[in-house]
Amino acid sequence: MRALITGGHGQLGRALVRVAPPGVQVVALGASECDVTDPTAVRAAVARVEPEVVFHCAAWTDVDGCERQPERAWRINALGTQHVATACLEAGATLVYVSTNYVFDGEQDEPYHEFARPRPLSVYGASKLAGEAAVRAICPRHAIVRTAMLYDATSRNFVTTVRRLASEHARLRMVADQYGNPTFVDDLAHALWRLVAQPAYGTYHLVNEGAASWYDWCLAIVQELQLPVEVEPIPASEFRRLARPPRNGVLASLAAPALGIRLPYWREALARCLAPLRPA
Ligand SMILES: NC(=O)c1ccc[n+]([C@@H]2O[C@H](COP(=O)([O-])OP(=O)(O)OC[C@H]3O[C@@H](n4cnc5c(N)ncnc54)[C@H](OP(=O)(O)O)[C@@H]3O)[C@@H](O)[C@H]2O)c1
Question: Is residue 216 part of a domain?
């Protein structure tokens, strides 16, 4: 199998390369080699690589930045996805589009499964949802995979932010009333490879099992790495930010377990990710 990855130098793109199954040929392209806002560049990259599968990971993931510059968000996340879907249609490639729990408003009490009704609260969520619509409308052979709270040990993400903050402050204040599923990118990448091996089409929620607030997640990181810092729980109302994350951003899956795909519990995944950094 030959696979092309857009956003190939990002957190998930690199994980897909790292855990690619043996025998798969992977071409990971960054923004300078395949700018998804340029339809000609996207078409040329797909024509050159001739992939059977395209993992579309490129996105503008700065959720507050998307509120400040909505046009840029629409151009990259929505229109960019439309260009990738068109190129996949023309090349006969399967498109795997990575979407987000920010498509939901977080107002229901239960976790969101694949058939729950999206209602984004932020430009980021709305632009990613528009990307989903483009994929469904244009490229019949597709899988839309919603995920949440991605991390590894080294990229710019919540885990590395907590490590940095803990080296600068004695006390961290973390939101305790917004929930999601912290998800180790390596586990997601393994699941994505399993999904395309089936092959499987449609919409899937792929996250590590279990829910956590930012406070729970921070506390777990602090415990794993034995960081000398106190963590104080605060309500979201005390941490004003431009984008409104869903209060309940927890995803559940009906579709993935039906294929035998389950990701490990989030706390176990975090321990595995941070094991190389744990003090002796
Ligand atoms: N991170 C999360 O917590 C999270 C949660 C749910 C869903 N997702 C989704 O998962 C996917 C992967 O996320 P990630 O964590 O790997 O994000 P990431 O580390 O920010 O990677 C995204 C990549 O997209 C690239 N990119 C930006 N604009 C582009 C353009 N116009 N053309 C081509 N590439 C462009 C970026 O390149 P530059 O750095 O050079 O700009 C970056 O390497 C995204 O679709 C995101 O929406 C992420």
Answer: no
The whole model's pTM is what? 0.98
Domain that holds residue 101: 2-148+183-209+251-257
For ligand 1, atom 42, which residue shows the shortest CA distance? 10
**Residues 101, 78: Cα–Cα separation, whole Å:** 16
| Rounded Cα–Cα distance for residues 106 and 175 (Å) | 15
Q: Any catalytic annotation for residue 124?
A: yes
pLDDT of amino acid 240: 84
Is any ligand 1 atom within 6 A of the Cβ of residue 189? Answer: no
Name the closest-CA residue to atom 10, ligand 1. 98
Task: Flag whether 55 is in a domain.
Answer: yes
Which of 124, 151, 179, 204 is labelled catalytic?
A: 124
For the stretch 150-187, pLDDT in tens is: 999 999 999 999 999 999 999 999 999 999 999 999 99
Q: What is the CATH number of the domain that holds 123?
A: 3.40.50.720
Ligand 1 within 6 A of CB of 148: yes
- For 28-46, letters b (16+ CB in 10 Å) and e give bbebeebbbeebebbbebb
Q: What is the mean pLDDT of residues 188-215?
A: 98
Number of structural domains in the chain: 1
35 C-beta closer than 6 A to ligand 1:
yes
